Amino acid sequence: MLVFILRRLVQAVVVMLSVAFIAFMLFQYVGDPVNNLLGQDATEEQRVALRKDLGLDQPFPVQFAHFAANAVQGEFGISLRQGRKVSALIVERFPATLELALVAGLIALVFGIPLGVYAALRRGKASAQLLMTGTLFGVSLPNFVIGIVLIWIFAVELKWQPSFGRGDVVAFGAWTSGLLTRDGLLHLVLPATTLSAFQLTLIMRLVRAEMLEVLRTDYIRFARARGLTDRSVYFGHALKNTLVPVITITGLQLGSLIAFAIITEQVFQWPGMGLLFIQAVQFADIPVMAAYLCLISLIFVVINLGVDLLYFAVDPRLRVEGKTH
Amino acid sequence: MTAPLLEVSHLRVEFPTRRGTLLALDDISFAIAPGEILGVVGESGAGKSLTGAAIIGLLDPPGRIAAGEIKLAGRRIDNLPYEQMRRVRGREIGAVFQDPLTSLNPLYTVGQQLIETITTHLDLTASQARARAVELLASTGIPAPEARVDHYPHQFSGGMRQRVVIALALAAEPKLIVADEPTTALDVSIQAQIIALLKKVCREQGAAVMLVTHDMGVIAETCDRVAVMYAGRIAEIGPVADVIHRPAHPYTVGLMGSIPAMDGDRERLLQIDGSMPRLNAIPPGCAFNPRCPRVVDRCRVERPELRPVGATNAACWRPLTVEVAR
Amino acid sequence: MAADANPNPTASASALHGFFDGDVWHSFRSSPVAMGAAVIALVFFVCALFAEAIAPHNPFDLATLELMDSLKPPAWIDGGERKYLLGTDGQGRDILSALMYGTRISLLVGVASVLLSIVIGVGLGLLAGFVGGRVDAFIMRLCDVMLSFPSILVALMISGVGRSLFPNAPDALAFVVLVLAISLTGWVQYARTVRGSTLVERNKEYVQAARVIGVGSLRIMRRHVLPNVMGPVLVLATIQVASAIITEATLSFLGVGVPVTSPSLGTLIRNGNDTLFSGEWWITAWPSLTLVLITLSVNLLGDWLRDALNPRLR
Hints:
Chain B is of the alpha/beta class. Helix content of chain B is 34%, strand content 23%. In chain B, the strands form 2 sheets. Chain B has an 8-stranded mixed β-sheet with strand order 6-7-8-3-9-10-12-11, sandwiched between helices. In chain B, strands 2-1-4-5 form a 4-stranded antiparallel β-sheet, covered by helices on one side. Chains in contact: A-B, A-C.
């Protein structure tokens, strides 16, 4: 097992290095790195000094190493558009996105798993068919359309909920949380629901499909042949086997949520990293783009690793390098 | 004569499909006495496994019992509501399936699966159930059962797993075991062990066995009586020695003649021309008539019932009554 | 095995016959949902194809726009006119016509992206399966990494890089970058499927025999692997068209998709979003509805196709 962890760590490092490489290429060759680091308003002397400092006359690998070293410390220069340090911007925006993604993920799990189980167990009945048709809508409706519709219904017509921004937030040092105020929570409802929609349908379909597969296995048949109660068969045996792959896949979805938050943040003007990134893309703000890329990759790699470890914890077949006799 | 433990009368199993209804089991009747081992043999698709599935009430939909009765210890079980049938399963009828690898849930230990089965049917405390689980593992020949009861299925070899499956089938002390090809997925060297084990524990518990297989050797070793199935019908049924050495039905004759013998003359193996008809193309009259060397006009029109011929019962208009020299 | 026997010329005719007799067609006819979806998809497709002929106005011809007619609601509401059936936007453009042209752009980009995805994916899959070894390992690693990144991110990155590299790019280039961006998000599935099939076929004896005789690898792949994967690829493609359309719409909505001069459905929705709060709901509503209907019908078709081609689910 240790070997496994080590191997995955090495893979993770390789992936991060590749990503850093791509970010580096962006930084150096798309646009002007000196600009990227100093911003538009630097003087000529500063530029020359920086050029020497950066070692732009240095061989390629050295420059890359320099960049990577900076990246690890979170130093990505100055945003071309906003003129502030990229790292500061990101730290400022990160909590908003993370909270949004976590709440959305929670909603998706809490509703998606039971609905999926229901759809599998009641297969063929009208209610299950209805649910599955509903998932088709969930998959076909783009994130932003759902957001717009929700805004229109709940914010414009019914005026129940606010439609943009984060509301009141509480700060803990660098972290700001909207979860602790009623206003903050209220602001969270629509965006989180919008963001969770796609995931919810995905989880539902996944759980249903997995469960149906599991219900066809020999060990379920054998369990029934032993006269075990339906409850045991469905929730003791089938569900456990279903959830093993599901949990791991949904873990991976967390990263996806953070990424898709980009869209939701645009619709709701949610002050998170996604909104920052979109503005960066629109204005070709390379430093921000590069930083976002690296951060997202890091998040993904960490999540992937975590999920793999989770698999280990849950599936006994992977754990014991068993002796069979 | 003691009352039969299992009585199957005129069982019909159909599969309604888009292209019409397929008759998979056509008027099957047989009985198993308490403690008896009945073999059910036949080619793939003859309906052997379906018979077992119908008996334990686990026919895969859209299959369903269209007619007939199944009685266990005098009580009808084919029309029981789901919950009552569930109680019958495991407690009165146990099942052993073909593939031990996929029969066990990989995420639970062997002990957990045993204890669950035991406590579902028997009123024992947790520690009593665990003790019984260990006991069951011991009786099925698994070494160091106290330790192995906490192992996962993937930690056992194929033969050991099948022993676990047998232990599970016997956990709630059923009186009848339906074993569907229990050795087919195992190495040849292990097959004999498992069959011997099955025979032993069933005798010990006084359980009857319906042993479904396509392997005549296993039948010869283990069974008291044997039923030969063909195209969803029973061709011949009788005591094992008689069916093997003095078969009456031409199909059985062909079946016996096609078994290679280690001793005796090395003659050409008998081969029955043609193949078993598909379910949607069963000929009228006797299902075997297109391939039968002894066919007469009546065979093509009237379906024969099982009638006593010598020591066995055969469904044939012209059964052999002479001993086939082997 | 004959190297390249001329296939029976009546085989294709009877194959067509076989199709209509077969389970797939039967499944189609007995599924009202699939048929309905197909009809809807067809309607949109036709509208998109013949937009110039069918659309009542040309929303891009500045000469025909009348500012006086701007912000008119749909015809059945007070203030609307039959001339502008679904209303007009802030500059007097007829929504219905804009929808048709927009649908064309959306469908064009969507289908083009999927086609490119297929070319990339199938190509890489064949390569990985046939060549094997380190090439295979590398491509599979690439697949894994790409799969773990959400599509929107990949598309955004490529779009962003494209913008930075070519800040004043002509429209055509912008389209190319967009199609490339979207297609790079979807090729992985094809690659995996094709690789799997290639591996299976490669190990079959008749393929090995053919190689011994000297039949080229390319021909083997074409004749034996490709026919086997067409089914799954078709299903994937149908479902992916929907997701490609959504991705394009999203990018356009975010302002980084199609150029402003050729608005797709996403652009139209973005434009309409600004007036949502002041009550001119129709500018957003119609494009949104259209988008949803298109993707819904394509998804339904894809779902049905997958079930119809899957023998296990019968």
